[in-house]
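Protocol step 4 of 6: structure prediction from sequence.
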Amino acid sequence: MQILALDVGTSSVKAAVVDAAGAQPAGLVARVGYDLEHPTPDAVQVNPDVLWRAVAAAARQAVRDFPGVQGVGLTVQTPCLVLLDKADRPLGPIWTHLDRRARPAARQVWAAVGDDFLATTGNRPVPGGITAVCYRQQLQDDPYLCHHIRSYLHLNGWLALRISGEKAFDRGNASVSGLFNTMTDHQWSQRWCDYFEVDRAWLPAAVDGTNTVGTVRSEAAAELGVTAGIPLKLGIGDTSSAMLAAGLTPEDLMHTTGTTQVLAALAGNPKPSPRLVTRLFGVGDLYLQAAHNPVGGVALDWLRNLCFREQSEAEFFDRTVPAAAQRTTRVLLDPPFLGGDRLEIEAHRAAFRELTLASDRMDLLTAVLEAMVRRHREAIQTLGGGRAWRRIVLTGGGAEIVRRLLPEYAGAAVETLEDGALRGVAKLFG
């Protein structure tokens, strides 16, 4: 069985026809970028029409040589809030997980009900990371907004609606809505719906990500380049999907590199922590817990463009970075939040310290590498408490480079996974 897998990431959509049995792309992996909007410094949003056009364009490229795909499956960045009116039209831009406009609302929630919120939903009310906090901020900015809303969805639920006409939430996305009893009965919480002024009727059923939410409508089929009437799988978040592709168990670690680095593991009976994201995996009954390292591989790209522009990418990563890793320096990257921190309510910015007129660009690079190693050690301790992992699966841009930089991975059973989120979509089909 060949299926169209759609991976909607932070700034691009990837699509591929994937063999459901082997979870391998059968042809090219199409990638179509889309523009994020930044109307204010803390805002990171996307126009729904722009996003849909990118999804459709990537899909058409992927299926060009495979006209007979038998299903469509989704995986998405998590979470993204989509509010719809009575005609199922988005009421505004989609707030992505990178958006930080909801800091005032997050402070209010944490001060008023923080401990209870953490204990029942599994997470702090972080801006961007919990969509009910984003909604609370939108409602404070526009008190009449609630009169226009008829549906409260996350990104894959909205895409499922565009494609099949049916609405749904997967349980993993429900867990980061702030409206779901993640740690208790796995149901929508009347308490938190009331607290955030969300009408329970706006929320569709929270189901397993393997759920066939419906079939592809004729209009959507024409835009995607597939046959109408084939099944659509609701899908799960991109980290969960990559873990699904890798066949991870609670003894394994998933390490995703990017703007920040995400360390994730499965758990059967987790304890919520302010330093972790805790949510249902999205498939089955296990939980996913994730810690973050704010110094990601993108920090190295940034420093290369800033200070080593005359070097080729190969020269920088094959010669300069290893040389910097062998040096010591008094310069510190502290605070280290070059890529932000998804677990923080307050704004954090990075800063170099202990600079003198004798400091050079290699000192800056060494300081970045030292901060990456230091924060990795802290994140892995927070997530696993020092336990040994059976397998470590690395995925994302620069995974091999990061692997060589981390002392904890020397001699460990480390493997890399390409296009993990896309390949995980195939697992939704059994």
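Step 5 (inspection) to follow. The mean pLDDT is 95.
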